[in-house]
């Protein structure tokens, strides 16, 4: 079978972050934020995300993960790239309502394309939301995807 | 259809794009295929600032006044620290009003690792849906914005640009055909 073109192969990166994270937990809205923060510290997420998270916890030690995510989405001074990183690291460990809020934060079309390509646990709704965020905004990428879909159809015929 | 020669930019800058994005060091090195490169150490799982290249020096001698712009071809001589991590985030033309124009030509193809490659955007029949006219092309603000993407959430990686060249495909407007001389002399006779 023809391998997918290199330009749309899944990203293989951040292995260290993903290997070191806690895997025995699903983060839901009511998860104490401290639990997440402890994992952020352990895996050494980027400085900006860690500093922002520490500040939220220091401001309210009882803050839940859901409340922190709401603040994150509303905070226009925090980089949306953190949302991209969070989804890549935690993917299926984030409860659907959390994932939906985090996806809201992301507007950059290429970031949406990368997530759409790489997240393994997208629901059909998340799949459609991410696709709509880059649809019509990356014509060269979409051309390649259309080619691949055509090749796939031929292979399956 | 006619085509100009390739031209490199006369003005280069690293321009802000969102919060805390990595900038380009030595943006002026992105002009001239000489092995010295503008470098952006793109942050983890994000994109970098714009590498803005303008002032390509096209004149009416290159693209005559009134010509139709059929296509725009941009050749980027570039490399990266790791082709599996660094790719385009966004690539836009800039028009004569100093604004981004037309399609985002970003490709998901990785930038070749540690060896320069010429990557071509657009072409003879691709106007990027930018609606550019001859006056845009000869304007000092005409150019291109490039931003690199790092898909690695675990480490920063360098994107490097040695040179960016543009050439223009155009069709000159038809020449005005002078009336035959005898018609002019006939009119002159009639007028007197």
Task: Summarize the structure in words.
- The complex is a heterodimer of chains A (about 160) and B (about 190).
- Chain A contains nine helices and no strands.
- Chain A starts with 14 loop residues before the first helix and ends with a helix.
- Chain A has one domain.
- In chain A, helix 5 packs parallel to helix 7 (about 110-120) and helix 7 packs antiparallel against helix 8 (about 125-135).
- With about 160 residues, chain A is mostly helical.
- Chain A has helices at about 15-20, 35-45, 45-60, 65-75, 80-90, 95-105, 110-120, 125-135, 140-155.
- Chain B is mainly β.
- Chain B has one domain: Jelly Rolls (Sandwich).
- Chain B has helices spanning about 135, 180-190, and strands spanning about 1-5, 5-10, 10-15, 25, 40, 50-55, 70-80, 85-95, 100, 115-120, 145-150, 155-170.
- In chain B, strands 1, 2, 4, 5, 7, 10 and 12 form a seven-stranded antiparallel beta sheet that branches. In chain B, strands 3-6-11-8-9 form a five-stranded antiparallel beta sheet, with no helix packed on it.
- In chain B, strand 8 (about 85-95) and strand 9 form a beta hairpin.
- The chains are: A mainly alpha (about 160), B mainly beta (about 190).
- Chains A and B meet through helix 1, helix 5, helix 7 and helix 9 of A and strand 8 of B.
């Amino acid at each position: 079978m023809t391998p997918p073109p290199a330009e749309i192969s899944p990203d293989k990166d951040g292995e260290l972050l993903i290997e070191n994270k806690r895997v025995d937990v699903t983060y839901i809205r009511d998860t104490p934020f401290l639990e997440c923060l402890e994992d952020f510290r352990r895996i050494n997420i980027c400085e900006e995300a860690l500093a922002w998270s520490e500040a939220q916890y220091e401001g309210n030690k009882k803050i839940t993960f859901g409340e922190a995510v709401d603040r994150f989405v509303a905070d226009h001074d925090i980089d949306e790239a953190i949302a991209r990183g969070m989804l890549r690291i935690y993917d299926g460990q984030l409860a659907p309502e959390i994932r939906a809020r985090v996806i809201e934060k992301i507007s950059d079309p290429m970031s949406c394309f990368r997530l759409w390509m790489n997240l393994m646990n997208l629901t059909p709704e998340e799949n459609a939301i991410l696709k709509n965020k880059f649809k019509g905004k990356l014509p060269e990428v979409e051309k390649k995807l259309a080619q691949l879909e055509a090749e796939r159809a031929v292979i399956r015929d | 259809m006619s085509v100009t020669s390739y031209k490199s930019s006369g003005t280069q800058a690293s321009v802000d794009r969102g919060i805390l994005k990595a900038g380009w060091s030595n943006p002026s090195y992105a002009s001239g295929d000489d092995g010295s490169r503008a470098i952006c150490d793109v942050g983890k799982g994000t994109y970098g600032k714009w590498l803005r290249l303008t002032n390509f020096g096209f004149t009416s001698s290159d693209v005559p006044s009134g010509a139709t712009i059929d296509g725009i071809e941009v050749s980027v001589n570039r490399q990266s620290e790791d082709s599996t991590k660094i790719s385009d985030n966004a690539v836009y033309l800039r028009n004569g009003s100093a604004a981004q124009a037309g399609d985002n030509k970003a490709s998901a193809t990785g930038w070749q690792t540690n060896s320069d490659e010429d990557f071509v955007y657009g072409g003879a029949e691709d106007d990027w849906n930018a609606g550019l006219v001859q006056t845009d092309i000869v304007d000092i603000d005409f150019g291109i914005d490039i931003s690199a993407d790092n898909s690695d959430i675990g480490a920063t990686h360098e994107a490097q640009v040695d040179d960016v060249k543009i050439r223009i495909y155009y069709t000159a407007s038809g020449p005005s055909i002078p009336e035959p001389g005898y018609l002019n002399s006939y009119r002159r006779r009639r007028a007197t």
